[in-house]
Design goal:
The complex is a heterodimer of chains A (487) and B (105).
Chain A: H1 2-10, H2 12-29, H3 37-60, H4 78-102, H5 107-126, H6 131-151, H7 158-188, H8 193-196, H9 204-222, H10 231-237, H11 240-267, H12 269-296, H13 300-320, H14 324-349, H15 363-366, H16 368-382, H17 388-402, H18 406-432, H19 438-441, H20 452-463, H21 469-483
Helix pairs in contact in A: 2-3, 2-5, 3-4, 3-5, 3-21, 4-5, 4-11, 4-14, 4-21, 5-6, 5-11, 6-7, 6-11, 7-9, 7-10, 9-11, 9-12, 10-13, 11-12, 11-13, 11-14, 12-13, 12-18, 13-14, 13-17, 13-18, 14-16, 14-17, 14-20, 14-21, 16-18, 16-20, 17-18
Chain B: H1 7-29, H2 33-53, H3 59-86, H4 91-101
Classes of the chains: A mainly alpha (487), B mainly alpha (105).
């Protein structure tokens, strides 16, 4: 028994990837109905345990990565291990809520299968050992997310237009990424993460172009402004499960992949002097555009998309600093993005996915549990004290001021002020208004049992600031590992 | 260190880059859903060819082909569903119908 456990722990990364793949196959064997989600919940629970245990051992206990996997097929670095744990836990929570979001019928097995395929892709991207494998894993995650969003076309045909825009954007970004990978490989002579840190980069300008293309492609896929033209349509009209899975699972995974790639670029002086300013500029633009669009949003899902763009901007500013503190602040920002998305969109989906913000008027009286979840997400977006959103912004200010980047604090303040406006508007509608339409009056907590994941995320988002020491220690460890190119 | 030692490599890279750029622009701008999907397929294939011409790893071509085929498959399914739902595969008609249903922010 102990040998089996040791074997499992030595291959934890592989188990984290293979479990959802197996579950995806099992889900298709169930003919129809919500029971198709059972293999998904089980498989993603196994994946979460494996990835979580690996993150605990490597980042908190400081153990070296298991030799069975490291450097062979998979690469276990700080950000990857943290991102994989986050992805698997988030995917498991979404799988718990999925029976309510999918509904009965023949689409349920396909939706459960696609959710697990997407999760497997995102987890694999966290452990990718080279840029080609990173591309392949991300494509699996993106294409599964596209198909999941398109499944919502059964209820609202607008989901199809959003999915098409998502697909086109992903394809063009993927083409850019392929060319970027080729530039990096040609200029550095290598494409594996292990070797990139040691490669002398004889053609630094070409390598900078390559890294720039790869980072731009990842930013397009993640919905960073101004490269996020597809996001409004996909988030606004997509199926609830697809949108929730991408916002809480896909976007954080893409940002983590971006951090892994940027770590090598920013830390190499001839390349970093081109890449760091570009990351900075993109981050500032994303903060401003995302915040302005979120203020003007009339649809809750689109508000989440634009708020995510603003948070992604803060993340880019953090990693542009190139310091361990900057990377750690970026990782906290990724966690905040995932928690806020899960709470906000999960809570909204439990009341039959309200389209317009007017549907939230007075919801607290009719659907108290959904309102708690949405409030948790809104408080995190506002950066209210004790929330994960506040922690993320505080760490970014600390990292910026510590590195002499005083104006980074300005960007955080802009994000927070905008967040107070659009997050506060949500809370005001929930608790201080009355329903303005009969349709809104009819909304209730119809799926209370499946609100548990969103509520967990909301509570985590609201209360993690009470005792964040273990979390900060873990993410600081991840940041140090990444900045040092490995354990 | 020279990036492109031979004229043939330069020619292939130029053709592949042009193919990718034109196809990507068509995928974004075309009004017909089928044309957009075909252009997307060509853009991804072109990117794979450009990556090979640049001397990227051989696996890159396989990854590009797999991604292109998978995108085409999913895109075809979306196009079929769009035809059933909207009775049209013209992006302008579809956007107009979506705008009537829910105006953008």
């Amino acid at each position: 028994m102990i040998d089996v456990l040791d074997l499992a722990r030595a291959n934890a990364a592989l188990i984290a990837i293979l479990a959802p793949l197996c579950g995806a196959g099992l889900a298709l064997l169930i003919p129809s109905g919500r029971w198709a989600c059972a293999p998904a919940v089980l498989a993603l629970a196994v994946s979460s345990i494996a990835a979580g245990d690996l993150a605990w051992r490597m980042l908190l206990l400081g153990q070296a990565p298991p030799m069975a996997m490291n450097g062979l097929v998979l690469r276990l670095d700080g950000v990857g291990v943290a991102a994989a744990a986050l992805s698997s836990v988030t995917a498991a929570l979404i799988a718990l809520a999925s029976p309510a979001l999918i509904g009965p019928g023949r689409r349920a097995p396909l939706a459960a299968c696609l959710l697990q395929l997407a999760a497997a892709g995102w987890i694999a991207s966290a452990f990718a050992s080279d840029l080609v494998m990173l591309f392949a894993a991300i494509e699996i995650g993106m294409l599964a997310s596209c198909a999941l969003g398109a499944l919502g076309g059964g209820r609202d045909r607008g989901a199809l237009g959003g999915a098409l825009r998502f697909l086109i954007n992903n394809g063009v970004a993927g083409a850019l990424m392929l060319i970027g990978v080729a530039f990096v490989a040609r200029a550095s002579g290598v494409a594996t993460f292990d070797a990139l840190g040691d490669a002398p980069a004889p053609a630094p300008h070409a390598a900078a172009i390559g890294f720039g293309l790869v980072i731009s492609a990842l930013a397009m896929k993640a919905g960073v402004a101004p490269l996020h033209g597809w996001a409004g349509a996909y988030y606004g009209r997509g199926g609830a499960l697809g949108v929730l899975a991408f916002a809480a699972l896909g976007a954080p995974a893409l940002l983590a992949a971006l951090a892994r790639v940027a770590a090598y670029a920013v830390a190499t002086p001839p390349i970093g002097e081109h890449i760091a300013p570009a990351l900075l500029a993109l981050g500032l633009v994303s903060v401003v555009i995302g915040s302005v669009q979120a203020i003007g949003a009339r649809n809750l899902a689109r508000l989440a998309a634009y708020a995510n763009a603003a948070q992604a901007g803060c993340f880019l500013i953090a990693i542009a600093m190139g310091s361990p503190a900057g990377f750690a602040a970026g990782l906290v920002q990724i966690l905040a993005l995932a928690a806020a998305s899960l709470a906000l969109l999960g809570g909204a989906a439990a009341t039959a996915h309200p389209a317009h913000l007017e549907a939230l008027d007075g919801l607290a009286r009719r659907a108290p549990f959904s309102s708690i979840a949405i409030t948790g997400g809104a408080l995190s977006l506002m950066g209210a004290p004790l929330t994960i959103g506040f922690l993320a912004r505080w760490r970014l200010i600390e990292a910026g001021v510590g590195g002499g980047w005083w104006w980074a604090a300005g960007a955080v303040i802009v994000t927070s002020l905008a967040g107070v406006f659009y997050g506060g508007r949500l809370i005001e509608r929930l608790y201080f208004r009355h329903a303005s339409t009969a349709a809104a009056e009819a909304r209730r907590d119809r799926r209370r049992g499946f609100l548990a994941p969103a509520l967990c995320a909301a509570l985590a988002a609201m209360l993690i600031g009470v005792d964040p020491a273990w979390l900060l220690r873990m993410l600081e460890g991840a940041g140090r590992l990444l900045a040092g190119f490995g354990p | 260190m020279s990036l492109l030692p031979s004229v043939l490599e330069m020619l292939l890279l130029a053709l592949a880059a042009a193919m990718t750029a034109i196809a990507a622009a068509t995928a974004w701008a075309s009004a017909n859903v089928i044309k957009r999907l075909a252009a997307l397929f060509l853009a991804q294939i072109g990117a794979g060819l450009a990556a090979l011409a640049l001397g990227g790893p051989a696996q890159i071509a396989l990854a590009a082909l797999a991604a292109a085929l998978a995108s085409l498959t999913i895109g075809a399914a979306i196009a079929v569903r769009m035809q059933e739902a909207y009775r049209s595969i013209d992006s302008d008609d579809i956007d107009e119908a979506d705008h009537r249903a829910e105006p953008a922010d």
